Amino acid sequence: MRMRTFIADTMVEAVAQVREAMGDDAIIVSSLEGENGGFEVTAALDQREQVGSDDLPTEETSLEQILREHLNASPKQETSAPRSPTSPGERADDQGDFTQTSIPFTEATLRQALEDQGVPGILAKALVSFSMSVDTDNSVTALAAALEDRFHFDPLPIAPAHPIMAVGLPGHGKTVTIAKLAARATVENVRSQIISTDAERTGAQAQAEAYGNLLKIPVDHAETIDAMGLVLDQRTDRIGIEAADGREACFIDTAAANPFQPDELQTIRRLIEAGRSVAAAEPVLILAASGDPKSMAETAQEFSRLGVCRMIVTQLDVSRRVGGILAAAEVAGLSFAQFSDTPYLARGVAVATPLRLAQVILAHAQSTPLTDHTETS
Question: Which of 141, 195, 209, 220 is such that its CA lies 20 to 30 A from the CA of 237?
């Protein structure tokens, strides 16, 4: 299903825009009159109705078609900025040697490792091809080079210049990730603040308060967009009055949002726009590592349309396969910011790097016997 939002001075004009852009088959799923006049109309078009049921693409074929379009484009043009020295608040093992591995560097080994991780075939083929062109005999180094060439890595700093707003689907760990980012800042003696806007989930406020008490940092509850704007305004005023050289961090927790549900999409869009307007807040997608690659890619793409540019990958410690996060990053063009592979708050997030991601992908291969993947002509 494809959804678009149209804004016009009158409802008639908005509906006319819908018909012109999406055709007569489009369905009006929501309409809203603005406070200052004008109408906002969201319409949906089920593209599956345009083909017969026998002609529907399979899930795998559909994802492969999407990936092929992206892989036909040139890899990223810009390179990641050099990492600053590791701070005490980051995971200590960020400083470790990720190139150590007992995995033999062969095309078959890399291909199997990516297949075991559920990486879509067309994307795995591109990664293997680049890896084999790298001048090294180390599998981790070669795969890391391929990942760096294909994807973006843009970690969040300890003290982000603007508030960070965690967004995502239910059960992906937004609240605990916010707490981990706040804990990381606290370790660095950075003054932190948590704003909880989740008025939907039972116990959300109590959970946020518990984290705040544990970290000894303030937690503000904002059940409406206006309330959040007020809290952000007060923060801006306070920072302006206090010493300008002090580092501050603000993390905003949001209610779970399904971008495929029009009402939830509308709510999270307004929240993101308000946060950006009032305090230049940056929405960051919180995405659990395990999941169906196509669903994860579609989810990431929908959030990218809301202005999300980075994602934090969670639940790496309990995920058997990480192919979905590669598909999501490729299709949506999102940068990897941080990885989370522990339930504990202290140093609970690690900087996302190509080497770390390569190690995660190849770790399983060290204990898995090779099968014959020799291609036949």
Answer: 209
